[in-house]
Amino acid sequence: MRNQDQIKIFAALFVATAYIFCFSHFGASAYHSLIDSTVTYEKGTYIGTVDVSGKSEAQAEKLVTAKTNEWKKSTKIFFSFKEKKISVSKKDFHFNIPKTISGIQSGSKNLASVSLPESSLDKMIRSVSESLSADNLEKDRLKSDLLVSSTMLEPGSYVFGLESYIPGSDKEEVINKAAVDGGQNATELAIFAKSMPEVEIGSQTPFSLQDHLLKKLDKKLTTEAQSRLATAVYEAILKSNFEIIERHISRELPDYAQLGFESKADSKKNLDLMFANPNKYTFTLAFAMEDDRLTVKLLGRPFLYKYDLTKTGEKTFDPKTIVHFKSQLSFLQTAVEDEGKAGQIINIYRKTSDESGKQLKSVLISEDFYAPLFSIVDTGLFIPLPELESEGEISEDDSTADSESQDEEINEEDSEDEEGLDEQEIPEDEQVENNQDSENIDPQSGVKEEEETETNSPQK
Q1: Which residues of 236-266 are buried (b: 16+ CB within 10 A; e: fewer)?
Q2: How does residue 456 score in pLDDT terms, banded at 50, 70 and 90?
Q3: Where are the beta strands (DSSP E) in 8-161?
Q4: Are 352 and 309 in contact (CB under 8 A)?
Q5: What does the pLDDT look like over 294-328, one tens digit per residue?
Q6: Nearest Cα to 168, choosing from 136, 124, 146?
Q7: In what ranges is there compositional bias, type Acidic residues (predicted)?
Q8: If DSSP states are collapsed to H, E and C, what string results for 201-268?
Q9: C-alpha span between 351 and 368 (Å, rounded)
Q10: Rounded to an integer, what distance in angstroms lies between the CA atom of residue 334 and that of residue 337?
Q11: What 8-state DSSP symbol labels residue 373?
Q12: Residue 297 and residue 199: Cα distance in Å, rounded?
């Protein structure tokens, strides 16, 4: 009897305990479900760029999930370092949506919970350049900037210049140097270099020698001095990634320029040297006069790639000769009026190589052609036989054959004339005259000797 009472008491306590536990557990869940379906976030509640004002927790989670998928799909992230630019994978950006929802503060602007492992960031940096590492740049600041777009859930295209995260990366160096002989323009070029020691080449903008340099001078340069300056500047920028927009050359290669490196400038004829700097940072052209030579230096941040110049297709063309016949000169007498000048042609290629020396591309920069200048020779009216043969392609055999055929025709005509004379009575006086004429006729040419002598005599 006593045991039954204890069992009843235990059963009653068990049922009461189970009721209280179930009510507190499932009742709380039911209560929260009921409350969540009715309670919404206050006005001004944001998760990144997503406005969840007046939304329930479930609705906010749905909006955040959709915006996260959009960011992963459409966002593009690039790392740039000097001339190099690569795309960065987004798979290492981890979005924690439950943590984002649970950390929402109603009525405030909130950020999405996103993480980027350190090892993944190090791998991204090394993929840009072998010279880069997490130790020589401000990695924490780079990581913080990378997470801004993701935590804001703002899709787009983002480029991160790694130079800005490297202390001292803005230090300028001498990229290339070129010089031309000042010649007769040394004085005015020296005055120019003193008055204009340097000029800046803007980032991602075209540079005009006329607009940015020559037009700003108080004392204008002569045409030849402008060309000497343009040649030096052109040669200085060739070993870079600058794009040549406009360039001119002379009809003849001047003595101060190398073949393939000339640039002609003339403000009166609107002949300009124009190029563009595609980089995100500026460069400087520095001018100086050293031993009567104009020196131009290209200053700026060192390039990641190496730029070399290659010459191909270099050829020389001998000038042709123009012969002027002048009666003032006797036969076989010649005088050189103009020696002429050989023509030249050359192609200049710019070869781009990466840090390991692998060639990335080769681009044709210019194809310069200087036409030959004819040589002019004065000579007498007599033309030697070899020259006639070369011009008319007449050989001795052909000339002999022609003379023999002419002789046969003459002999046939003579025989016909003789037969006709036999049939007619010829007076003795006429026979004597004909005999005298025949004695003076050359048997080969059929022309009187006196007449041939007059033809071959030189005209004075």
Answers
A1: bbbbbbbebeebbbeeebbebbeebbbbbbb
A2: very low
A3: 46-47, 50-51, 76-81, 84-88, 94-95, 109-110, 114-115, 157-161
A4: no
A5: 999 999 999 999 999 999 999 999 988 888 888 78
A6: 136
A7: 390-432
A8: ECCCEEEEHHHHCHHHCCCCCCHHHHHHHHHHHHHHHCCCCCEEEECCCCCCCCCCCCCCCCCCCECC
A9: 18
A10: 9
A11: B
A12: 11
Pairwise CA distance, residues 52 & 63, whole Å: 8
3-state secondary structure 289-326: EECCEEEEEEEECCCCCEEEEEEEEEEEECCCEEEEEC
Q: What is the dihedral of CA 18, 20, 25, 29, to 10 degrees?
A: 130
Residues in the chain: 460
Backbone Cα Rg of the chain: 48
What are 25-31's contacts with CB under 8 Å, separation 24+? none
CA-to-CA separations, 130 to 134, 171, 172, in angstroms, rounded: 11, 20, 21
The three-point CA angle 44-50-55 to 5° equals 60
Are the C-beta atoms of residues 308 and 351 closer than 8 Å to each other?
A: yes
Q: Tell me how far apart the alpha carbons of residues 145 and 88 are, in angstroms, rounded to a whole number.
A: 14
Compute CA 40 distance to the chain's CA centroid, rounded to the nearest angstrom: 60
Question: In this structure, which amino acid lies at residue 131?
Answer: S
Query: Locate tokens 């039911």: which residue?
Result: 30
- Read off the pLDDT of residues 5-16 as tens digits, 9 standing for 90 and up: 667 676 777 777
- Token pair of 86 as six digits: 């690569």
Chain centre to alpha carbon of residue 421 = 90
Q: What does the mean pLDDT of the chain come to?
A: 81
In contact, 236 and 177? CB cutoff 8 Å: yes
Higher-pLDDT residue of 198 and 408 is 198
Q: Which residue has the tokens 């052109």?
A: 234
The domain segmentation of the chain, as residue ranges, is 46-165, 170-303
In terms of Cα–Cα distance, which of 90, 108, 93, 79 is closest to 151? 93
Yes or no: say if 183 and 228 are a contact pair by the CB < 8 Å rule: yes
Q: Is the pLDDT of residue 437 over 60?
A: no
